[in-house]
Amino acid sequence: MNNWNQSTMRNDDRNDDKPPYSRIFVVCNKQLRVEDLKPAFEVFGQIEDIHMPRDRNTGESKGIAYIKYTKTSSAAMAIKEMHLKTIQNSNKPIRVMVATHKNDNHNTNEDKYKRLFIKVHKEITESELRQHFSAFGHVESVHLQRDKLTDECRGFAYVNYNTFLDAARAFEECDRKYKAIFATPKEELKRSRNSIENFTDNFHSSNSSIIKDNFSDHYNQARGEIVKRDSLTSLIRTKPHNCDTVSVTCSPQVPQKFIERLFNIIPGMTSCKYTSDSFNGYCKAIISYEDEKSAAHAVDRLNNFEFPSGEIISVKPNDNPLSKAANNLSSIVNSFKNAIDSANPDLVQLAEVIAQASTLIKEATSGPRELKLESSQSEFCSVSLPPPQPLANINSRVAQRCFLVFKPHPPPVSILKDAFCRFGDLIDVSTFPNKTFGFAKYASIRAAQEAIKTLHGATLGDIRLKVLEADERPSKEDKINADDENGIDQYTDRKRMKLQDSSSS
């Protein structure tokens, strides 16, 4: 008996095929054998394995077969040429399709296999992409993903082909810089927030590009093999920062478990301290790692990561001196306890511990003025601001409004008021739940213009601001409030041209 039936398919891991979609499913006559299928299908490429399941009780063939190729394009060619054709020793047409995993229905619809997801630089055009990818087959469409407000390319695109074979050739032969993969079907992306759990599970098992750059030979694509954390950490090439924790902000907010699962991909995560702000529609987390190298790698790989359902995370080193002081104090307390527990405590050592603790407390409570500003107000601003000034009366006449855009999410209103009140005559600042824009109202044009001049393009902590002049006398259709989200969206659309002009400056 030949060895074509001794298949790893019996482990039922068809969904982990490498390369993707390189295994086909054949529905055929029960009288056919491996010797009948092999000559008919090996003309399309090198075959790794043929498996024909049999009934456990009777030993009779079930009339189906799985054929695994070494290349995706070979499987695609076999489907194109053999579907609904007859072969030797069979007078009935066979059905040939991509072999899906056990939880999917076998489906001859090729739409799932025609679309590629690629990474691109932000200055590329759709015509450039079409020119390159047309070399592999007929391109039906190219779609650059753009920011809804600024219209700036977000760094990735979709290329849709006419056939699975064309897409497979492009997947194998396109320039490696595009890092092409088969795109998730559109209908699967239209899911509820709860579906993020499915995404994070797949994220761990699919060797995503976040980890693949450094761990391609070591990261666990299936579920069976376990790789030691230390061996993974040794492969990290990111230059470490002077801290082992990172600060994470996500907008819109997502549950804690999804943040934990994402950051646990980086080896060495030890804790996740999570908080959420439902009113402003974002969440924050402090993630700790066992070493500075892992923390730096988390910043490098996960900053500006976007979940499939649209949530974007911002990641930066958490180098707040207060946090460092707290960690050092914990170490000192442990040393103090060890000394007390010993039979003959070293009094000199205890004195040194107390002196170190006093120094840390003094530094934490009497640090520079900028540190106090960061921890108590707006995590400071990237531009110099004048001193705070009193707010104008809430009933004052509005002389001019400023249109504010925040990326990736709005900061707390108290922080915005602290920044915008410094130009005088500020009446109020407003933001809207789950929106990335707001308004500042001034009682004088001078103050509004100073705010625009100073704060446009500035950052508050890790949040970038765009400050534009709003309409002085809005029409009825422009008069919106926090309870009219449709009006907000319409107003935002009318501001896009101004945003595009300002972003280019």
Automatic annotation (TrEMBL):
InterPro entries tied to this protein: Nucleotide-bd_a/b_plait_sf (IPR012677), RBD_domain_sf (IPR035979), RBM45_RRM1 (IPR034203), RRM_dom (IPR000504), SLIRP/GR-RBP-like (IPR052462)
Location of region: Disordered: 1-20, 474-505
SMART domains attached to this UniProt entry: RRM (SM00360)
Keywords carried by this UniProt record: RNA-binding
Coiled coil (residue ranges): none
Residue spans of biased composition, Basic and acidic residues class: 10-20
Domain of life the protein comes from: Eukaryota
Domain spans labelled RRM: 22-101, 114-188, 416-472
One Pfam family matching this protein: RRM_1
GO MF annotations in UniProt: RNA binding
Annotated protein name in UniProt: RNA-binding protein 45-like
